[in-house]
Design goal:
Elements (H helix, E strand, L loop, with lengths): L1 E2 L15 E4 L2 H4 L8 E6 L17 H13 E11 L4 H4 L6 E9 L5 E3 L2 E3 L1 E9 L11 E3 L6 E2 L3 E2 L8 H11 L5 E4 L6 H8 L3 E6 L2 H17 L21
Parallel strand pairs: 1-2, 2-13, 3-4, 3-12, 5-9, 12-13
Antiparallel strand pairs: 4-8, 5-8, 6-7, 10-11
């Protein structure tokens, strides 16, 4: 499930499809051909000074990967990202995507310090390429799990900023269809991959921290077994092998 090859050795789709690829997203994404991804859903490093997360003091990585996300994403598709409230104006700088909507994840037990007190919500921003349609109309405010870094059926999640898998499942259902291919270039604790697996979507997950690669793989394997009887069978993607140009 975890792929550790250097980027030059990777072949699409066999080394990517439904895999957690351990490495630098900026290098790995260049191995994906143009226009094959149905949606990008991610929680990038965006200025949080959080121990254990790489490149959190600036937005260099985020800005660098945006053009590549645009390239691999199909026309008429969604790019969905979490982002820091304090850095919000910078989300729209040099962004090739068009703003579509904002979704709020309300956290009653939130205790992150902010300029006005304690922050009790996360912002999830929906952008678009072309003119895609929402697959399943729902709502734009969701309530978090009981407390930070805890899942009711898993317990403590050893990652600084895990996103609740039930919330990620709602996002996946709203903006993608069964059998779609979803890319998360900053997979973290693996919630995007879990949502995809439980809902019959394919995924590609990149994560530079090997500890979190193993965490995501364990969670994915455990939860897949627990929910095996109710998990939709994934449709087979007919993607031809990609011949790479020299980088």
């Amino acid at each position: 499930m975890i792929v550790r090859k250097v980027s030059e050795q990777l072949r699409f789709p066999e080394d990517f499809l439904d895999k957690i690829v351990c490495g630098d997203a900026l290098q790995l994404i260049r191995r994906i051909p143009d226009g094959v991804v149905d949606a990008v859903i991610t929680d990038p490093p965006y200025g949080l000074n959080t121990e254990g997360i790489n490149d959190t003091n600036d937005l260099t990585t985020f800005y660098a990967i945006l053009p590549e996300c645009w390239r691999v994403l199909k026309q008429n598709a969604f790019f969905i990202t979490f982002f820091s409230t304090k850095l919000l104006p910078q989300l729209f700088r040099s962004n090739p995507f068009t703003y579509f909507w904002q979704i709020i994840l309300y956290c009653p037990g939130g205790s992150v310090n902010s300029p006005i007190g304690f922050t009790k919500f996360f912002s999830c921003f929906v952008f678009k390429k072309g003119n895609p349609s929402v697959v399943k109309r729902c709502k734009d405010i969701f309530v978090d799990t009981p407390s930070k870094m805890v899942e009711p059926d898993e317990g403590y999640i050893d990652h600084p900023t895990p996103k609740p898998k039930r919330f990620m499942m709602e996002i996946v259902k709203m903006f993608t269809k069964e059998g779609d291919l979803i890319l998360d270039p900053f997979l973290g604790s693996g919630s995007t991959a879990i949502a995809c697996r439980l809902l019959g979507r394919h995924f590609i997950g990149f994560e530079i921290n090997e500890k979190y690669c193993h965490l995501a793989a364990r969670r994915l394997s455990t939860l897949t077994q627990i929910h095996k009887s109710s998990t939709p069978r994934q449709k087979v993607l007919n993607i031809p092998p990609h011949r790479h140009k020299t980088l």
